[in-house]
């Protein structure tokens, strides 16, 4: 199998003059970008990095970040991307845990790097005159004289590690997920196939390159000689400008960012007709947003992608609006099962319609082989050749998968297992609801009570929402017992709802009105 450096060379050879990368005024063809990537790869070697060494990168989605990622693939250097908002202790942990031999950062992340003792012991490449640097990025980019065939400039094999992604664990330290070149290439190929990408697609490079969705977009564009347009920090208005200016053809975002696009005042006046393919992942998309996006873009393809850092694709549904909430069926490189919630073996399979834990075959081409330095995590999640995802879901009678949440998010109220996602889907369809999140709050009688946190589009009260739920097909014991109106739903940097913050009271109440409680609390 080809390594990722040779994969990039395919596009250079096929489409040397095609536009490959845009970041503001920076515009590079495949030939120009390739030359720069080789310069940076040489510069990293001059810095003392060798094949197999790890390099921590704490940057926003800028052209330098994308270039470093590809330079690592050519040089055989393992990229360890980290959230640019990372705190000093997170930088310190990742430098130490990954055994990083260098770190690249910018002014926005300089304070965290400066306060990390571990970061001070390795070469520090700073962008934009970032304080505390021992080297500059400009020194990496400088043109170097090289001889020989360009194919000789790749120093990795398909079995080498491409990158280590650190999961944003809800508790404790993040877990490092090492992924080989062949895992990454297989995931990118599947992404191209499952999203029906053609040669020359153009996408918005806004999903962070420390997250599997951002990396997948970057690699997929190279596979199809496409264009990656960097957006350093999410801004809906800027994203809309990029879509129009560069005639972007496909979007791959988390639901939150789609919500922001539609909500921006510039959406109605922006030409988005070039966008023909929508894809989303990272979190479920509620029924209301699905309908609004479908009407706004009228896409020829609308893909719900369900996966993780560990195994890029679990399942896909290429017609997300046909069966709202369905995550479809196993991806091209994947086998899936749903086992009983308390299953210890992959053979304890749940019945059709029975909610259980979703597990994935580790023999799939996209699957990782185990966590970095975490035998405890391996023991918990890897069993008999299957990855136990920690996600809950079920298969319907047609064989389609429905993801209902996390094992840890399951609400247990009066002895009943209740998934937040079902309730969120119903409430999202109310015209006054902008966003909704449901969580279980401790209750002396029920153990947990179902509470819906609502961000309103227009005024609505709890009685109206309760009546909406009663008129739906939501069974009574799942109906929220409280409604709390908030200014915003707390989310992670990639758009996942942070239910633990809602449960801990870490939110700002909506100033329009105080929540009122429905009077009936009888279980049926």
Automatic annotation (TrEMBL):
InterPro entries: AMP-bd_C, AMP-bd_C_sf, AMP-dep_synth/lig_dom, ANL_N_sf. Belongs to the ATP-dependent AMP-binding enzyme family. It comes from Paraburkholderia tagetis. The keyword Ligase applies. It comes from the Bacteria. GO terms for biological process: fatty acid metabolic process. Residues 423-496 form the AMP-binding enzyme C-terminal domain. It holds the Pfam family AMP-binding. Residues 10-372 form the AMP-dependent synthetase/ligase domain. This is AMP-binding protein. Keywords: Ligase. Residues 500-524 are annotated as: Disordered. One of its GO terms (molecular function) is medium-chain fatty acid-CoA ligase activity. The lineage of its organism: Bacteria, Pseudomonadati, Pseudomonadota, Betaproteobacteria, Burkholderiales.
